[in-house]
Amino acid sequence: MLPIEQARAIAESLVEQARAAGADTADAIYAASESQSVQVRLGELEHVDRSEGEEVGLRAFIGQRSATVSSSDFSPEALRELVTRVIAMAREAPEDPFAGLAPAELLQRGTPPDVQSEDSQGADPEAMRSRALEAERAALGVPQITNSSGASAGSSASTVALATSTGFSGAYRATGHSVSASVIAGEGATMQRDSAWHGTRHLEDLDPAEQVGWLSGERAVARLNPGKPKPGRYPVLFDPRVAGSLITHFAGAITGGAVARKSSFLQDKLGESIFGAGVTITDDPLRFRGLRSRPFDGEGLPVAQMDLVADGVLRTWTAESASARQLGIQPTGHAVRGTSGAPGAGPTNLFLAPGKRSRDELLTAFPEALLIIELIGQGVNPVTGDYSRGAVGFMVRNGEIAEPVAEITIASNLIDMFATLEPGSDLEFRRGIDSPTILIPEMTVAAA
Questions:
Q1: Which domains does the chain have, with CATH numbers?
Q2: How far apart are CA 357 and CA 120, in angstroms?
Q3: Which pTM value belongs to this model?
């Protein structure tokens, strides 16, 4: 992985070469990553993995025609060939009236914000091994845990550099640290498996390995001897482990590409109340040490905290330049991209703001309800919003978590779910997309 200034210099050089070869405009992105992980099982080292990847992508525009070519060969000859190939491809590409770089007047200028995404502590394989062993020991120490699927610890680092012919040049690095454990409770046909994981940008923010391991064991034991509820209509609570998936469906539905293609169940909802009063969904790319924080977007535009939903009202689409032109709006600073294609749009640190009632108060809101801790399958229609997924969880009676349930299906429509959902007050920032416990007052529950 190249030093950050050298990575940026390569991106800038490719843009200059493309312009000299006949491109009207061009941009180039360098992306590199490296990771290490250690996996143990039953106290023994099972697997050590190290991976590295490095690639550069060049996008060239000739009029309204464009092409993108990528390469992992950084020799001068290979990069010259990359430029030649992308120009030739752009000349033969079909015209796209919405293609083009982000407007120059919107590009980020000056020093990019520091989001503290890079940890100065590097990877230490021995320390990772110790963390993995500690997590597994703690998990196996939970009563009724009978076996281990393994525990792991890892670290990663990445570099992104972007340059455009319209005057933007920037780069940033990010690191990551993680620990996880997965164990089995019970014997024979009654066995149940569960896990716990935590990941952070900085090692000092990582949960203790013992805590992660113990949590995985407690989760597995809690799932023993599951039953099935009587089919019918139930209030359903989504645990924070899975509640973020509902926000993920929302994020996909408001991307400019989906709206422009008329393939979103929120197609005509801009400016309307799609959630209840008081509900806010925020995207925060500048959160210090956030798992998806970044100082600029995939087109070189500045980024900022933004309420996508405020007081229940859908305030904006998330759009990169191409879909923004198609929709007749400004790009929103949500461009995401790799090295081999045009940018799309997506969120960064997205979260559903906490509500007024605590998790315990939501659990007691109905005499009988269902608490979901795991979702299975992909039964969501992004065009209609129809929602049907396999699930695992617990019955809740009079506010108390009762017996586990498994092999069930929960179903509704996301438009109805969004309109009636209530967030709890237990929000924690632990993932890229975060949510407190969510209560949906009514869903259809059936045996899977």
A1: 4-220 (3.30.2290.10), 226-448 (no CATH)
A2: 40
A3: 0.96
